[in-house]
Design goal:
Chain A has 8 helices and 8 strands, in the order H-E-H-E-H-E-H-H-E-E-E-H-E-H-E-H. By secondary structure, chain A is α/β, with parallel strands linked by helices. In chain A, strand 7, helix 7 and strand 8 form a beta-alpha-beta unit. In chain B, helix 2 links the parallel strand 1 and strand 2. The model of chain B has no long low-confidence stretch (mean pLDDT 97). Classes of the chains: A alpha/beta, B alpha/beta.
């Protein structure tokens, strides 16, 4: 199962949640599958989905799911100690770990070789770290939402991509639409 | 009121409730004041681009945010400033320790200092240079300007500013 299939299976669980999605294909796939005001699409800035998601979770009370990739987490590995030490029980970091830089041609990442991101997260002090298969990912996200504890989920899936259109929404439109939705949920 | 207290009072008066910091010796006092401020959530970050991601998220969650960092971070954060903060029209006051200026004891700091204003100018980031302690009185207007225009602004604070404080 590849990332786009994991996302497709997740839609019933995450469609009504605030979602911050990673640069490149993950955002494009989410946009194609289920465009929503509750989705914040990153159009640039590799590595910061988890940081944006944590900042958002700390600033308001609605649940936040940041969908990140193994390559992006490796780019911003300092995010894991920050997450571990700033508990936001409305925050779920879902790392779709396909062991490759999918948006740039499936070059292998170290997470697909010897490095375990779940063990790194635990070593950084993250309390609730779940590693699961691609197939079990919707259930893991549902359990994390129901558990109301800050959770890091590492979803191990295969590398591979489908053809998806680029997002042609303007960045301030994405941001403004998302902020209005966040405000509505906190009203 | 000390200059550190004045800076933090201006942040609070402008409803800034989320501040991320990467430390610098010159900024130690103001970081202590941030830490002590009850209305501000202080979240130290490991790298300044990470900090800008945290600030962007907090802003979208309804909390005004700011970053405190050294000028060396301009070199670290150009991509984030351009493709996140500027591209999405996110306001971000950046209180920056301007190392490598007059009075600097560490030669390496000069290497980044000579590029700092040129880089900020290239990025079209409104830039203010606090050299004399009295310059702090402009901070309130600069913060308002950043949130009004939804843009990052740079406040460069040099050694003379801090030594005179």
């Amino acid at each position: 199962m590849i990332r786009s299939e994991v996302l497709k299976n997740l839609i019933p669980i995450i469609s009504d949640q605030l979602v911050v999605s990673n640069i490149g294909l993950p955002s494009q796939e989410l946009h194609m599958l289920d465009d929503q005001p509750s989705n914040f699409y990153m159009l640039g800035t590799m590595g910061l989905a988890s940081s944006i998601g944590l900042g958002l979770a700390l600033a308001q009370s609605a649940p936040v799911i940041a969908i990140d990739g193994d390559g992006s987490i490796l780019t911003n590995l300092g995010t894991l100690p920050t997450i571990a030490n700033n508990t936001a029980d409305n925050f779920i970091l879902l790392i779709i770990d396909n062991g490759s830089y999918g948006s740039t041609g499936d070059q292998p990442t170290y997470a697909g070789l010897k490095t375990s991101l779940a063990k790194v997260a635990e070593a950084c002090g993250c309390d609730n770290v779940v590693e699961c298969s691609a197939e079990d990912t919707p259930a893991a996200v549902k359990a994390a939402l129901d558990g109301k504890k800050m959770t890091i989920i590492v979803s191990k899936c295969e590398s591979g991509n489908i053809k998806v259109p680029v997002i042609d929404m303007d960045a301030p439109v994405i941001r403004d639409r998302f902020m209005r939705e966040v405000a509505r949920r906190n009203a | 009121m000390s200059i550190n207290q004045k800076i933090v009072a201006d942040l609070i008066n402008n409803k800034i409730e989320f501040v991320t910091t990467v430390p610098c010796k010159q900024l130690a006092g103001v970081i202590d004041e941030i830490d002590a401020a009850k209305s501000i959530y202080h979240i130290p970050s490991n790298k300044e681009d990470e900090g800008m991601g945290l600030c962007a998220g907090a802003y979208m969650g309804g909390k005004r945010s700011a970053i405190i960092m050294q000028n060396t971070a301009i070199g670290v954060t150009i991509n984030t400033l351009v493709t996140l903060i500027q591209y999405y029209n996110i306001p971000l006051p950046m209180l920056i320790s301007y190392r490598g200026e007059l009075g600097e004891p560490v030669a390496c700091q000069v290497e980044m200092a000579v590029h700092t204003k040129a880089l900020l100018a290239q990025l079209n980031i409104p830039t203010y240079h606090f050299h004399h302690p009295d310059d702090v009185h402009e901070l309130d207007s600069i913060l308002k300007y950043s949130f009004m225009g939804k843009k990052p602004v740079a406040i460069l604070t040099d050694a003379s500013f801090w030594q005179g404080a």
